[in-house]
Structure formats: structure tokens, C-alpha cells
């Protein structure tokens, strides 16, 4: 195996550093969401529904990066707390769209503000002019691995 076929020094591995950054972001989000009684997955659902109401379990699972089975548990917990509402029966097929309740909108407001502060802290070492470039580079990296058209 040639040197080009190995990851090499982890301190210079983009993938490894990206995973470290993602783990640090998750831990920081967890720290600000826990006092609000939310997990990162629960917050993700609230944020997803705040942007696009009436999503199915499968759509929410994809958006929150969890399995459909795990999403059932997340939704059950949010529903028991009165933060989301789901139809008792599906109008079409088996999908039961979920929506935020007024309490869910209120919880999302505080949680989203807390997460925005975490993201601001994460980006603070970078000049503001570089934020858009970083975003574009991350999208390009994601698209290269998922086969998405980078010209979207």
C-alpha cells in the first residue's frame, strides 16, 4: 500500500478533523439544549418542522440523521410534552404528518437562539468574510460524496 493510499497523520486528515468538529458541535449543542429539556435530535425535529411543517416520520428521520425507529421515539417524547401534534390516522398511505404546537414554537424559539450562539462561537475564529466560503466548501465536499450535482 503506497503512502497515497493511507490517511496518514490524523492532524492533517480533513475527515478526522471534520469528525472532531462535528463531535464538538454536538457536545456544545447538547450542553445548551439540556437545560431546556431537549436532546439534539428533539431540537432537530423542532427546527425541521419550523422550516417545513407537516413532515412525515421518514422525512424527519432523514433530516435529523436518525433511523425511522429512533424518530418514532423522538416524536413520542415531543408529543407527550405537547410540543408536536400528529394525526391519529394517515390521510394517504401510512405517513402521519407532524406539526409544531404553540408550545413547540415557543420551545423552538429559545432552542434555536441557543444553538445559533453555539454556531457563532464555532465560527468566531474565522473572519466573517470566510463564512460563506466555508459553507460552499462543505456543500461541495458533501455533494462529492453523495453524488449530488454541485451546480444546483
What is the CATH topology classification name? Arc Repressor Mutant, subunit A
Give the overall silhouette: globular
Biggest sheet, strands in spatial order? Answer: 1-2
Mean pLDDT: 91
Helical residues, percent: 55-70%
Number of individual domains: 1
Q: Biggest β-sheet: count, sense, barrel? A: 2 strands, antiparallel
Give the strand content.
Answer: under 5%
What is the H/E string? HHHHEEHH
CATH class: Mainly Alpha
- CATH superfamily caption: Winged helix-like DNA-binding domain superfamily/Winged helix DNA-binding domain
Which segments are poorly predicted (pLDDT under 50) over 5 or more consecutive residues? none
Compact overview of the structure:
This is MarR family transcriptional regulator. The chain is mainly alpha-helical. It is built from six helices and two strands, in the order ααααββαα.
Keywords:
152 residues; mainly alpha; Arc Repressor Mutant, subunit A; two-stranded antiparallel sheet; 6 helices; globular; WH-like_DNA-bd_sf; HTH_MarR-typ; MarR/SlyA-like; MarR family transcriptional regulator
Produce the secondary structure layout.
Elements: H1 14-33, H2 40-51, H3 57-64, H4 68-80, E1 84-86, E2 98-100, H5 102-123, H6 131-146
Antiparallel strand pairs: 1-2
Helix pairs in contact: 1-5, 2-3, 2-5, 3-4
Amino acid at each position: 500500500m503506497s503512502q497515497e493510499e493511507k490517511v496518514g497523520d490524523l492532524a492533517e486528515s480533513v475527515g478526522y478533523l471534520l469528525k472532531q468538529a462535528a463531535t464538538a458541535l454536538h457536545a456544545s449543542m447538547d450542553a445548551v439544549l439540556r437545560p431546556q429539556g431537549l436532546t439534539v435530535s428533539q431540537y432537530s425535529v423542532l427546527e425541521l418542522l419550523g422550516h417545513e411543517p407537516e413532515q412525515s416520520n421518514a422525512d424527519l428521520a432523514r433530516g435529523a440523521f436518525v433511523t425511522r425507529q429512533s424518530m418514532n421515539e423522538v416524536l413520542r417524547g415531543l408529543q407527550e410534552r405537547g410540543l408536536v401534534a400528529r394525526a391519529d390516522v394517515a390521510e394517504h398511505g401510512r405517513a402521519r404528518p407532524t406539526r409544531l404546537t404553540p408550545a413547540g414554537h415557543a420551545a423552538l424559539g429559545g432552542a434555536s437562539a441557543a444553538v445559533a450562539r453555539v454556531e457563532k462561537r464555532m465560527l468566531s475564529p474565522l473572519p466573517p468574510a470566510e463564512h460563506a466560503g466555508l459553507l460552499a466548501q462543505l456543500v461541495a465536499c458533501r455533494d462529492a460524496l453523495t453524488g449530488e450535482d454541485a451546480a444546483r
